[in-house]
Amino acid sequence: MLANSDDHTEPGRAVPPDAASRAARDEPGFLPSQPERRQTESLLVRVVATAGIIGIGTALGAILGASDVEAWITSLVVSLICVLLAAVLWRSRTL
Question: pTM score, two decimals?
Answer without folding.
Answer: 0.54
